[in-house]
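Changelog note: in this version the structure field was regenerated for every chain. One regenerated record is shown below for reference.
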Amino acid sequence: MAEKKAREKRDRAAKVVLHRLAGTKKALEACRLVESLYQKGKRVTVFLSDSGRAAMLDEYLWTFAQHSFVPHVLWDGHGEVEDPVVVVAGTLANPNGATVLVIGDQIADQREASGFSEIHDFVTASPEDEGKGKTWEEAGFKVEEGRGVAGKAPG
């Protein structure tokens, strides 16, 4: 009975897509993924654990590709925003009512992401990324594996 309830909970759970990267750099792949999600009409929140990394990704989203345009804002921690893509730092929030979360580095507690229906996380060659899939599953999420981004996102 308990096994059946656990399976039903996972069936209702948000989808986590793990994007496996060959190296340890995530910024370009994150930008490509965010662009792809935006082009599909999705509202996206991008989370980074510190404001310095968030500011760098904010700048990179404007410049990562010559013919790319991803309208976004670096959230200042106050109020709601209308932008389709928002970059947040420090504490996970959803100021634009996004359904999709892209995690740019580490999230302290995966359960904080439960308000999003689709979550994208990166797994690099870094030792800190070992076991990410298991951690997401233990937090009650359905996990799908992917290889890189290649300019396309599931969904």
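Spot check on this record: Strands lie at 15-20, 44-48, 72-74, 85-89, 100-103, 118-123, 142-147. The chain has one domain: 2-147.
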